[in-house]
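Notes to self after the Tuesday call (sharing in case useful).
The group wants a holo model before anyone commits to mutagenesis around the pocket. I volunteered. Ligand is zinc ion. Logging inputs and output together so the record is complete.
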Amino acid sequence: MCSNLLYKAFHAMGVMYNKPIMQIDQLIRSQRRKTIALIIDQEGRLIVRAPAHTSRRKIEKLVDEKSAWIQRKQREVKTRPPAARPKIFHNGEYFYYLGRVYPLVLSKRLKPPLILNGTFSLAESACEDGRKVFSEWYRERCREIVTERAAFHARRLNLRYRRIRITSARTRRGSCSLKGNLNFSWRLVMTPREVIDYVVVHELCHLKEPNHSTKFWARVAAAMPDYRTHRKWLKDYGQKFSL
Ligand SMILES: [Zn+2]
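Result:
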C-alpha cells in the first residue's frame, strides 16, 4: 500500500519533470538502428537499443509510456524458476526424460553403464564421465524419437526434408537449414512428447517459410492448433532442462 502510494507520487513527479520512473540500466546506440527497442534481459535489467541520434528525452518518454509492460516483464523474469544447477551425478539426483523426472541410483556393476527402468541406474565406474554417458544416452533416444516424429509429421503435412542431425545446442532446440536438413538438440528429449512434436512441426514448417513471419505461424497453427501452449511451456521451463 505504502510503496504503491510512493510509486504514484514519484510517477506524478516523473510526469511533471518529464523524467521516466523506470531506470534504464543500459543504453546502446547504433548507426544502423531505425527504431527504439526495449529489452528485459535474464536478470530483469532494462536495456534500450536506440538509433544514434534519438534524443534522451524521446527515449525516456517511450520508456515511461511502456512502464507497465516493463514492470510486467521484470516480474516475469523474477518469478521464473531458476536455471537448473549443473548435475554432479550423485545418488538421488533427478534427471529428466520426456518431461518426467527420475531419480539416479548408482550401481556397482552395470552394462550398459546407464539404464532407465523406473529410475536411472548409472554404473559407479561411469560417474566421473556422467555428463558424457548421459548426453550419449539422450542423444540416442533423441535420434530415435525425433526421426520417428519428423517422418510422421512430414507425411501428414506433405513436406519433405533431407536429413536429421542431432546437435548439442544449449538454447536452440531445433533449426532448419536452407538445404532442407533438420537439426535437433539432444536436450529436447528431456521435454514432454507434445513439446518435442511442437519443435518438430516448427522446424518442418520452416521448410516452406524460412522465417518467423505471420505466414509461418499460420502454417504452424494449421499443422498444430494448440502449438501456443507448447511454445509457452518451452519458453517458461525450457531452461530447466540441462545437464
Ligand atoms: Zn523457428
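Two things stood out.
The chain has a mean pLDDT of 87.
The first strand starts at residue 26 and ends at 30.
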